[in-house]
Amino acid sequence: MDRGNQTRVSEFLLLGLSQHLEQQLLLFGLFLAIYLITVIGNLLIILAICSESHLHTPMYFFLANFSFTDLCLSSTTVPKMLFNIQTHSQTIPYGGCLAQIFFFLWFIGLDVFLLGVMAYDRLVAICHPLHYTILMSPQRCFLLVMGSLVLTYLYSLTHTILLTQLSFCDANIIPHFFCELLPLIKLSCSQPYANQYVLMYWGGALTILIPLMILISYVRIVASILRVPSVKGKCKAFSTCGSHLTAVCLFYVAAIGVYFIPFEADSAGKDRLAAVMYAVVTPMLNPFIYSLRNRDMKKALGKLFSRRLLLFP
């Protein structure tokens, strides 16, 4: 395309999930409820872990960070969508779009890394229980979280910088409810080779290597559990992994639906549905997954509510 015909786009148009007014009102109520449940649920998980000393263990340290990441992930997309529905405006500034992509990629990548770290924690706890306190020392746990934070920050920053190098012509319509990487790359009227390479190789590590590591971890965990002689011991070991495994399956079933669809065969409707699942619904469900199936978390939440009732009778 002739560079002389290119103009700098100052804003993008987000089509959202529906163009019908009646459906938008329904979506506003639905997503407002989902967002409030997400915020309250994840905050309760964090407060319960912080307030109970017996939950100050590596597993719950990672869970608290995971809940905070889910809270941030949902806050990156849902409030803007609610604002657009409420104001009947579909626009987002160019800088705001890049900022949304940066934080979305950062938090979604951090979610992936933390799922991998939590799988490693369960592997060490079940397969190497005698060395658990050494292998999962507070310093190592801190380094695992900080390492995940830095790596995903660099991944997100790389994509954002590469996006600033792309040229956008007259087309500024994004068929999504937030600024998502793939639709924005498709809008570019310049060749996004660098973006696609980073997405293929670095994004591939997030969507292939870490899930593979989680799978290998759980194969070893299951093999170790099956060697436990007592049925009670097996059930207890499986119960410590069930919540995490459920969260992993829920996240990846939705996420793979987006990033393993070829560019040409990509469906905007399927993209939006999958994004709603892994970026909006999953952060809402995770507090239920980790609390309803975890006896220690249920006790901690019960104590937390009891204290609040005593403070505010």
Structure summary:
The chain is an all-alpha fold. It is 76% helix and 3% strand.
Write a structural description.
This protein is an all-alpha fold. 76% of the residues lie in helices and 3% in strands. The protein has helices at residues 21-51, 58-87, 94-127, 132-135, 138-164, 181-187, 193-226, 231-259, 268-292, 295-311, and strands spanning 11-14, 91-93, 173-174. A three-stranded mixed β-sheet has the order 2-1-3. It is globular. The N and C termini lie far apart (68 Å).
Q: C-alpha Rg, in Å?
A: 21 Å
The span between the termini is: 68 Å
> How many beta-strand segments?
3
The amount of beta strand, in percent, is under 5%
Share of helical residues: over 70%
Give the helix tally: 10
Q: How are the strands of the biggest sheet laid out side by side? A: 2-1-3
Outline the biggest β-sheet: 3 strands, mixed
Mean pLDDT rating: 84
H/E element string? EHHEHHHEHHHHH
Structural class: mainly alpha
pLDDT below 50 for ≥5 consecutive residues: which ranges?
1-7
What is the 3D form? globular
Show the helix and strand layout.
Layout: E1 11-14, H1 21-51, H2 58-87, E2 91-93, H3 94-127, H4 132-135, H5 138-164, E3 173-174, H6 181-187, H7 193-226, H8 231-259, H9 268-292, H10 295-311
Parallel strand pairs: 1-3
Antiparallel strand pairs: 1-2
Helix pairs in contact: 1-2, 1-9, 1-10, 2-3, 2-9, 3-5, 3-7, 3-8, 5-7, 7-8, 8-9
